[in-house]
Amino acid sequence: MIKLPGNPSRKRVALLVLGGAATLIVAIFLLVYFVIFPTSSPKPFKLAISSTSSAATTSSASASTGGVGGRWSVAAGSEAGYRVREKLAFLPAESDAVGRTSSITGAAQLGESRGTITITTASFNVAVNTLKSDRSMRDEKIHEIGLESSRYPTATFVMSAPVGFTTSAVSGHVARASVTGVFTIHGTSKSRTLPVEFALSGSTLEAAGSITFPWSEFGMSAPSVGGFVNVTEKATMEFDLHLQRA
Q1: Pairing of strands 204-214, 229-245
Q2: How far apart are CA 84 and CA 222, in angstroms?
Q3: What's the start-to-end Cα distance of the chain, in Å?
Q4: pLDDT tens-digit map of 17-72
Q5: 40-245: CATH class
Q6: Which of 74, 95, 129, 154 could anchor a disulfide with 149, C-beta 3.0 to 4.6 Å?
Q7: Residues paired with residue 239 on neighbouring β-strands, in sequence order
Q8: 143: CB partners within 8 A, 6+ apart
Q9: Closest CA to 224 of 119, 89, 100, 104
């Protein structure tokens, strides 16, 4: 049997139909991602108290905090999460993707002597498998890729060196100090030093900070969703802890 060659015009039509279908799929994806689920990223954590003072451990102050020594535990209002730069395929602009959770436990031990407050120990656990962003699609994906929170549901921080500041620096002001400790993310532990803001207001000690790192530092790969959504090579973990006397 002799097979007649296919009709070239039909092939062209088929290719055009396939190309149009692919374009339509991309357009629908863009519509869903940017219109139906618009990005609304919260700003990085920053303490609201306007006055600023540098952290110190050597000078004393006359201001009294009413005694802060003892154990301080995580209280309501605490949040932690991630911030990454996200890019949609075919578009040049990037945007912040932010996920946060209030499922945090832990405590710090404080001491006070001669006008100086010292945080002697501190450790915190964050349930990263409860992180929520402005898009449920993204939240579902990080359980399987990137952070892999289904496999590694908890991130931890354990302080490894005491941190001190004067009572005048932290009472009613924002004090800044470098904090060193061990982060465990994605099952990988690394010692890092990061700047942290502290403020003592009434019965609450607030601490806010962040750590930025390459995904590979904690054994992760930058997530990519079907080639449509890609994340840049660095991630930020940020926190705003509210501690109260236990």
Answers
A1: antiparallel
A2: 10
A3: 89
A4: 565 665 555 555 555 554 444 556 789 998 876 444 444 333 333 334 457 899 99
A5: mainly beta
A6: 129
A7: 80, 209
A8: 129, 149, 150
A9: 89
